[in-house]
Specification:
single chain; alpha+beta; four-stranded mixed sheet; two-stranded antiparallel ribbon; 9 helices
Length: 294
């Protein structure tokens, strides 16, 4: 409501309040100068510059980080979830979720033969490391903290990792059609469905067996030599790399402990989903173009 170039008192009050809220939303560190918070022009509109990912989330200081952090969704500001806030903090503070202590386990739950074999291979390539006491080696490799196995030690060498982390699994399925939810005439939802458990290497191998079992295989005969060759529906090497990446690079924070990896075979594709998102400053449009944060 503008009359003669000035705002009516009520409209001015509303605008002032809106600008205050917007500045609060953008505020995170007192180190930011006023100039950094001032809006710039973009397509004729006033916009505030985004702060670096390492300093996010922005939040309203009046209620604190957990309750005052928002994300833009359409035309509204929606409260950020605990996991969204944690993701920014994990990057900023360089959290190492894979070496957090497994509070429920002790070394009796670990397959020492496999663990010792791994340590021996490391020592072969690092003679100086071999001079350290056994416990120091395990600690430096991230296998134990305060005498207890870490998450990564449990997932790699536990006799049964799902005893401690029931949802750190691969849920593999073959869908009836082109989308989830499609059913057969008798109501069947899946042609094949399996929950894959075990250590990380075991889950990788079992997932590949599942995919191989459910893939179409064509036999091609060379017209010149008469030799036969099998051609799988999907390149096995590429599938293995995709499954391995899904297992190794999933989010292993406490926020995603209830989320398994999903591998779904549709009639025309294979989809592999794991918990988490792109790390740090990396965005979809930058994939393959820039060096990712570590």
């Amino acid at each position: 409501s503008v009359i003669g170039g000035s705002l009516r008192p009520h409209a001015a009050l509303m605008l002032r309040h809106a600008l205050q809220v917007r500045v609060y939303h953008l505020h995170i560190l007192k180190a930011h100068s006023l100039q950094e918070l001032l809006p710039g022009d973009f397509q004729g509109k006033k916009v505030f510059p985004g702060i670096d990912v390492s300093e996010r989330p922005c939040y309203y200081g009046g209620v604190g980080r957990l309750k005052g952090s928002y994300v833009r969704s359409g035309d509204s500001d929606e409260p950020m979830s605990d996991y969204e806030i944690y993701s920014y903090e994990a990057f900023r503070k360089k959290y190492q979720d894979d070496i957090r202590i497994n509070e429920k386990a002790d070394l009796l739950s670990i397959d020492r033969k496999k663990l010792d074999g791994y340590v021996d291979r490391i020592k072969e390539n690092n003679p100086k490391l071999a001079q350290l006491p056994e416990e120091a080696v395990l600690r430096n490799l991230g296998m134990i903290v305060d005498g207890r196995p870490t998450l990564v030690c449990t997932l790699l060498f536990s006799i049964y990792p799902q005893m401690f982390y029931p949802q750190y699994t691969v849920n593999a399925m073959v869908a009836m059609g082109y989308e989830k939810g499609e059913t057969a005439a008798d109501g069947s939802r899946f042609i094949d469905n399996r929950r894959i458990e075990g250590t990380l290497p075991e889950m990788l191998e079992e997932t590949m067996k599942f995919l191989s079992k459910n893939m179409k295989v064509r036999t091609i005969v060379d017209p010149n030599t008469g030799e036969r060759a099998d051609k799988t529906e999907y390149p096995v090497v590429a599938l293995r790399e995709a499954v391995l990446n899904a297992i190794i690079h999933r989010d292993y924070s406490m926020h995603t402990e209830a989320m398994p990896i999903e591998v779904v075979m549709y009639k025309d594709r294979v989809e592999i989903r794991n918990p988490g998102g792109l790390y740090g400053r990396l965005t979809l449009d930058k994939l393959g173009k820039v060096q990712p944060d570590t």
